């Protein structure tokens, strides 16, 4: 160890009581101390806060920490204050402070006492604050939850887009971006928007070796399937995510009636009930919380043993975050998602009211979820690939921890059928959604087909050697591989791509996985 390394180890012990750095912390801290722009991508629980807190504490000047949630900022400030005898060592600057409080914050910063100043992005737009911050030494600006800057992240906040301009006004200060959810696309957006392509980037692995990933086809028996699953995990803590409040209520009720201790949690319940249900779960007065995605932010229960998705999530990033609440203590964590293509179509329909750019993004993110559900490869490999990581691990690293690896799906050659399907899409000239394409293949008439006189065409019924379920499954798998694409604006018109036309010309082997069914599931509104 050189003298600098000894120094930061000493400071780590002095302030935080830890004898060792976790993961990439030491490298990150060295980069920050070197006054270089730094980008940190670590999963939740990876120890990101310390990466900027320690350099802030040991450097001259005040570090500005931008964070989107007031509650989280308050927690962090309290934690820092508990490390020191000086309250002024950390402050939050926001509009809820009184004039006297603001004066105190400014005084502590000016005197050099304040090492960490937490601000919400919208506070930073206030002229008065910016002018003040220009007059004091700033060690660096840390941007927590940096994915909020990207429309491709799971929590886009437009105020984050302004940050770079404001930071520029503060002079030459290094920027530290931190996030727990960064696909390559989001990473690129962060670096671009913060204008820091030169940043030292540190990325920890997102692999969670103790989590088991499973996808089951959603059938009408889903409730009894869930009950059976929970009874196999008797007395263990778990979370069930649903997309609608109505479903949350009905599943919680079904579980209760079946002797499982469960409570609902969603934004439609009053704050008192929500807090009560959350506490009951944390204190183990109930085993299961049935919730919308409103539940989970900041929940740190180490022994959640399963996370069930009753409905598929809107993106793989949300899925990763939500399943990440299982097995925090390193013990078992079973992540079970129920999948039905009807749910996908419901989500697509739900997006139709949104602005076009948002629709396009939502649609693309959803396609990745479909691909995950449909894949026959290792789910861990698939998820990590989505996060820009090539997983090549062994059993101890989770290589055998998913349904596809343990029970490989039966796969059958479908080259000729893919050609048939692609030809039908080409020959019907991009007027049909999946249902009519499949009907055309099997030779079934409905009003839409009649209106277009497709039933009089020579290719009508060309795929009647297989049934509707088969073609629907094949169509979805072909969509995932990119030979077909689904039009965004028309909500589901299927088109053939250049790659699809090439496939017709020179077909290659196409191994289709056999087991997904096409299920009907009841319609309902989606609200969280
Ligand atoms: P993140 O922000 O990445 O989700 P946190 O900063 O909240 O993670 O850290 C997660 C946990 O790890 C905290 O309980 C923190 O005290 C602990 N931790 C951080 N650094 C170390 C370390 N060097 N040694 C031991 N524990 C650490």
UniProtKB/TrEMBL annotation:
Q: Which GO terms describe its biological process?
A: DNA recombination; DNA repair; DNA replication; SOS response
Print the keywords alphabetically: ATP-binding, DNA damage, DNA recombination, DNA repair, DNA-binding, Helicase, Hydrolase, Isomerase, Metal-binding, Nucleotide-binding, Zinc
Known cofactor(s):
Mg(2+); Zn(2+)
Q: Which reaction does it catalyse?
A: Couples ATP hydrolysis with the unwinding of duplex DNA by translocating in the 3'-5' direction
Record GO terms (molecular function): 3'-5' DNA helicase activity; ATP binding; DNA binding; four-way junction helicase activity; hydrolase activity; metal ion binding
Query: What EC class is this?
Result: isomerase
Q: Does the keyword Metal-binding apply?
A: yes
EC number from the UniProt entry: 5.6.2.4
GO CC field? bacterial nucleoid; cytoplasm; replisome
Q: Which family does it belong to?
A: Belongs to the helicase family. RecQ subfamily.
Q: What is this protein called?
A: DNA helicase RecQ
Per the UniProt record, the source organism is Flavobacterium circumlabens
Q: Please tell me where this chain falls within the complete protein, as first and last residue plus total length.
A: 1 to 528 of 731
